[in-house]
Amino acid sequence: MSFRVLPRAELIALVLAWAGAAGCSSCGNGGGFDAGRPDVPVAGGTISLAWSLIDDATNRPVTCDRIDPNATVFVQLSHEGTGSVESFACKPLQGTSITAFPPGAYTATAELHMPVSGQAVTIATATPQGGVVIRSGQDIGLTPVVFHVNATGRLELMLRAGAAGNCAGGAAITGFSISLEHNGDPPDTGCAPVVFALSGGGTYNANDCSSPAVTRCIAASETLTVASLPSGPYRIHIRGKKGTLDCWSNDDALRVPPQGRSLAETLNLAFASEMPGCQ
């Protein structure tokens, strides 16, 4: 058997011919390449959810503002080991996701969050919902959920009229009157009758917002405590008197936290320096 050594040019041409034949193994009858169809992204679907809050102490509905003005509802959809989340402001009591979730079957969980010391804290969790089917281009309404909360808190106040103290030898206040009002959206408005326990002895019954009673001078070192009251926004009205004159005042807004937490504040009283008889 004899072999012929191909010239260089013929060898290159033969290699190129083999390469062309191999590259055309997927060619159709028309002789071209089948590049396949371009991938088209599948449109996702959205979710909608409505919720309500029930105070476990009264078994009555409460507003989100009673919990916190920045309370949120956090929804997580879990799907085959992965998950997506959506967050809604609590106050509207309903929301539709901005996120579009890939089609599929999910389990949905909903939590009520409120900020505490700069961190989002879970204070209630709704019953999970399984078998939530997301369809392309559609909005799916989840079953409305109920969050059970403890809408009560504690109030601890101190009053400060001056560096030398509130009573004789200091601001010379002879007596105090105090009233407390709800300061939220309806129905969380109107007078909020409470009884303050005074650490220096006795109590003060703040049950009349239109004509509050006058008690003794409350020292700057004393604490005024309400052990339990509905959480939410309030406005307090304090008058420090010299005789019948309102010489010192405070009208601060307060927010009593939920979940049995305490609000502890020192309230500074402003002096009516231009009122005759107060100097």
Helix content: under 10%
Number of strands: 22
- For the record, the count of structural domains works out to 2
Distance between the termini: 131 Å
Q: So how many helices?
A: 1
Oligomer: single chain
Characterise this structure.
The chain has one helix spanning 8-23, and strands at 46-55, 60-62, 72-79, 82-89, 94-96, 104-116, 119-125, 129-134, 139-141, 145-149, 152-160, 175-183, 189-191, 194-198, 203-206, 214-215, 224-230, 232-242, 245-250, 253-256, 262-268, 270-271. It has 279 residues and is mostly beta strands. The protein has 2 domains: 46-149, Immunoglobulin-like (Sandwich), CATH 2.60.40; 152-271, Immunoglobulin-like. Strands 12, 13, 16, 18, 19, 20 and 22 form a 7-stranded antiparallel sheet that branches. Strands 1, 2, 5, 9 and 10 form a 5-stranded mixed sheet that branches. Strands 3, 4, 6, 7 and 8 form a 5-stranded antiparallel sheet that branches. The longest helix is centred in the N-terminal third of the chain and has 16 residues, at 8-23.
Report a brief summary of the structure.
The chain is mainly beta and 279 residues long. Helix content is 6%, strand content 48%.
List key phrases describing it.
279 residues, mainly beta, Immunoglobulin-like, 7-stranded antiparallel β-sheet, 5-stranded mixed β-sheet, 22 strands, 6% helix, disordered N terminus
How is this fold's topology laid out?
Blueprint: H1 8-23, E1 46-55, E2 60-62, E3 72-79, E4 82-89, E5 94-96, E6 104-116, E7 119-125, E8 129-134, E9 139-141, E10 145-149, E11 152-160, E12 175-183, E13 189-191, E14 194-198, E15 203-206, E16 214-215, E17 224-230, E18 232-242, E19 245-250, E20 253-256, E21 262-268, E22 270-271
Parallel strand pairs: 1-9, 1-10, 11-21
Antiparallel strand pairs: 1-2, 1-5, 3-4, 3-6, 6-7, 6-8, 11-17, 12-13, 12-16, 12-18, 14-15, 14-17, 18-19, 18-20, 19-22
